[in-house]
Amino acid sequence: MDLGLTGKVFLVTAASGGLGRATAEQLVAEGARVFLVARTEDKLASAARELGENARYLAADLSEPATAERVAAAAKEAFGRLDGALVSVGGPPRGSVLGVTDEQWTGAFEGVFLAAIRVARAVVAAADNPVAMAFVLSSSARRPLDDMAPSNGMRPGLGMVLLQLSAELGPQGSRVVGLIPGTVHTDRIDSLISGTPNPEAALAAMGSSSALGRVGRPEEFGKVAAFLLSDAASYVTGTMVGIDGGSIRVL
């Protein structure tokens, strides 16, 4: 199947590793060009080198209000166009509903909710054509996670706003989807299991709740994200797509 990604340009946030990096790799493999954004410059530079001539980068913090417009403009300047984005923003702190401070709630709103909306606004404003945007959410968008009150508060609200955004942008030909990953074997997972007596057993336990009985691979997420950003998914918008191995058992 030709995904129609050749020559397209996508902004990819949180691109120094994990799901963002995996998506960037798949987009480039399909002929797209990517502009990578994350806070850690050395990791971004390494990722850009490995991706080759179709990748550029800028180290920046999306929690800062002016960053979204700056990186969208930089992406367009680097490649001459902008066709969409894979938007992944920082995770909020753990905590109970009553135990999270006002400052933590406010920080979660800034870092998770507003950061994503700012990127969407900046991408639409910078592009000269319809765009496709995929936003990385969390299983907390569909069911609450224990001791993760800020995530449980922000992710469902962001998902609902994305549904509204898809309706607002649809008449222009633009598309918006949410991506809900399950447990995917990223560097973060490795760091979590590295201190356990048996890392392999710990990894297997993490994947045991999924219908497939295992954790996901980053490239499995990246391939779905690339497809949804492509012309091959031209009639897919306003929906939340689980990439979870069947672990989130809700409609």
Descriptive report:
With 251 residues, this protein is of the alpha/beta class. It is built from eight helices and seven strands, in the order βαβαβαβαβαβαααβ. Helix 1 crosses helix 8 and helix 3 packs parallel to helix 4.
β content, as a range? 5-15%
Number of continuous helical runs? 8
**How far from one another are the termini?**
29 Å
What's the pLDDT, averaged over the residues? 95
- Count all strands and give the number: 7
Q: Rg to the nearest angstrom?
A: 17 Å
The side-by-side strand order for the widest beta sheet comes to 3-2-1-4-5-6-7
Helix content: 40-55%
> Which ranges are low-confidence, i.e. pLDDT below 50, for 5 or more consecutive residues?
none
Q: What is the overall shape?
A: globular
Most strands sheet:
7 strands, parallel
What labels would you give this structure?
251 residues, alpha/beta, 44% helix
Give a brief outline of the structure.
This protein has eight helices and seven strands. By secondary structure, the chain is of the alpha/beta class.
